[in-house]
Structure formats: C-alpha cells, structure tokens
Amino acid sequence: MILPIIAYGDTVLRKVGDDIDKEYPKLKELVANMWETMYNASGVGLAAPQIGLPIRLFLVDTSPFADDEDLTEEEQKQLEGFKQVFINAYIEEETGEEWAFNEGCLSIPDVREDVSRKDTIKMTYFDENFKKQEQTFDGLLARVIQHEYDHIEGVLFTDKLSSLKKRLIKGRLANISKGKINVDYRMRFPNRKKGR
C-alpha cells in the first residue's frame, strides 16, 4: 500500500526515533508498504518518520544511482545491488574526508542543495530478519545511508546548510509545509488550509 509522505514542517520529522523489537506490530507489512511508497515516489531511501512513525527504521535501494556515468565501475557495482532494511541503526564512527554532494529529500520536494558529509561510516543495525549487523560503508552508499539515518535522529539535510542558504530557501520550505507545491506522489502537509 502506498502511504502519504510527510512534508517538511511536520513535528514527526524532528523526533528522535525509538528502537523497536521484532514484535513490532505488522513489521513485515510496514516494510513492504515503505518499499512500495519509496518506489512510487522514485526515491532511493525512505525513513519511518517520513511516513509518520517516530521509530528507528529506514530502507535504502541505491540501484538507480548505479547508472550514473560519472561513477567508477567499482562504485556502480557497489550501488547496483544494494537494497537493505535498517532497524535500530546506530552510526558508531564517521571517518574520512568530508565531501559535498547535491542532496534532495522526498519530504522536501524541489529543494536540492550541496551537503558535506564524511566519506566512511561504521554502523550497527538489525536487518529485516532481526539479525544484528556491523558494517562499514563508504562513498555514495554511505551518503545515502547517512541521509536516511539523519531522519531517525530528527535531522533534515536542510539543517546542514549555511545560514545564508537556509535564508535563501526559507520561503520554499514554508510553501512546502503549506502544501503549495506540485508533486506526483502522495503527501501529507502539516499546515495546509482545509478545503485546498
């Protein structure tokens, strides 16, 4: 089932997610709905807060990035088959050089900005079968994971912008929260006036 994506301005996007256990109600159904919602919106990642649930759950499928001709063959291979559910994820360490990449977000449509992040992350998480994992990710894959991880920490990519950039996009963000934007996927807007 395709779920509405929560728009910028909703308080759920600012909550630090709670850990869940394998008894979480209808977890498999929730994960399936999140995949369907993400693909319907042409996303490469989706976090539970973006569908209104303040829990530590997100998923990533970087396959669409694998076609990027600017990437090395090794990078394309790394992204091509990567599809993963992250439950109760925690970044243990961030290392490497910071580098900028143009990011966007399904909750903040039509806003894209360069964000600097460290190159390599080491994290622990549970997969969809509740098997504990400890892995290191780098490059573009690490960046997508960091973006989704921020969601379960109550952080948005716009928080990482300079104060000048924030001022420049302030009006666009206000319009998104009011629903004054055209998107081709279902959204829920926190400040939309009734009857619109």
Task: List its traits.
196 residues; Peptide Deformylase; 5-stranded antiparallel sheet; 26% helix; two-stranded parallel sheet; alpha+beta; 7 strands; globular; single chain
Provide a descriptive summary of the structure in words.
By secondary structure, the chain is α+β, with helices and mostly antiparallel strands. It has a single domain (5-188), classed as Peptide Deformylase, CATH 3.90.45. It is 26% helix and 31% strand. It has four helices and seven strands, in the order βαββαβββααβ. The chain has a five-stranded antiparallel sheet with strand order 2-3-4-5-6, sandwiched between helices. It has a two-stranded parallel ribbon with strand order 1-7. The longest helix is centred in the last third of the chain and has 15 residues, at 163-177. The mean pLDDT is 93.
Question: Gist?
Answer:
The protein is an alpha+beta fold. The chain has four helices and seven strands. The protein has helices at residues 27-40, 73-80, 139-152, 163-177; strands at residues 5-6, 45-47, 57-61, 83-105, 108-126, 132-138, 187-188.
Largest sheet strand order? 2-3-4-5-6
Low-confidence stretches: none
Portion in beta strands? 25-35%
* Record field, number of beta strands: 7
Q: Topology, pairings included?
A:
Blueprint: E1 5-6, H1 27-40, E2 45-47, E3 57-61, H2 73-80, E4 83-105, E5 108-126, E6 132-138, H3 139-152, H4 163-177, E7 187-188
Parallel strand pairs: 1-7
Antiparallel strand pairs: 2-3, 3-4, 4-5, 5-6
